[in-house]
Amino acid sequence: MIPIEGHKDLYRDENSGAIINNNTSEYNSYMKLKKQKQNEKNELDSLRSELNEIKTLLKEFLKWILKK
Questions:
Q1: What SS3 class is residue 47?
Q2: 63 near 56, Cβ under 8 Å?
């Protein structure tokens, strides 16, 4: 691996040319943030689903009330 000038933790793979970050602390922070964002997205999706269910139940209830 070839060190990248001016970046102590970055290297270039000789075969693929890919840039590799060798800083495990930064990687772990990135993965933690990525997991947190995924959890937030899952929670938001769940809340949307529950809200849609509530809306559906309210519509059904209103139909039932208006039939009486």
A1: helix
A2: no
